[in-house]
Automatic annotation (TrEMBL):
GO cellular component: cytosol; protein-DNA complex
Domain Response regulatory: 8-118
GO molecular function, one term: phosphorelay response regulator activity
Keyword annotations from UniProtKB, A to Z: DNA-binding, Phosphoprotein, Transcription, Transcription regulation, Two-component regulatory system
Protein name: Transcriptional regulator
Amino acid sequence: MSSDAPPTILAVDDEPSLTALYEAWLSDRGDVLTATDGTDALELAEDESVDAVMLDRHMPGMTGDEVLDELRDRGHECPVVMVTGVDPDVDIVAMPFDEYLVKPVGRDEVRTTVDTVLSRRTYDEHVREFFALARKKAVLESTCTDGTLTASDEYHELTVEFDAARERANTARDDVLEDGFEELALHHG
């Protein structure tokens, strides 16, 4: 996507009324494509340059989880927002999404979340990874009991990955700041 072209957002849900609603809510944010099943979603992702995906987890046929895995297997690195009625559990740790919203969702929440993931596309890969892991951690901590999290190997692995990603993101930030100061010194020195 060029910087002046509007982003393309793919909204996938087996309820056509929801995809129509997402399209209405996001039409001023970019071009919105809609699909009501996983197969159509994958075809649209192949045919179009998709900048962000809103994806329901519970769909007949191909689930949102399967669509997400297939998108990643095909090399699509665009941000994915899971928008679903499925309450998250530690099973989300291994899922390569960027944000997780539990239905029902409102207009402002959807718009803010899409704006956020679209803006993150410009971030360093380490910073994007940190935000994705931070979101998973926050979702789990707000929906699971402390006992469930303490007993979960997946959650423990997530916290280890989160700490490592935070270090990589901090290093990337420091490198950018250092490069920026060196560039300023070269031009003003």
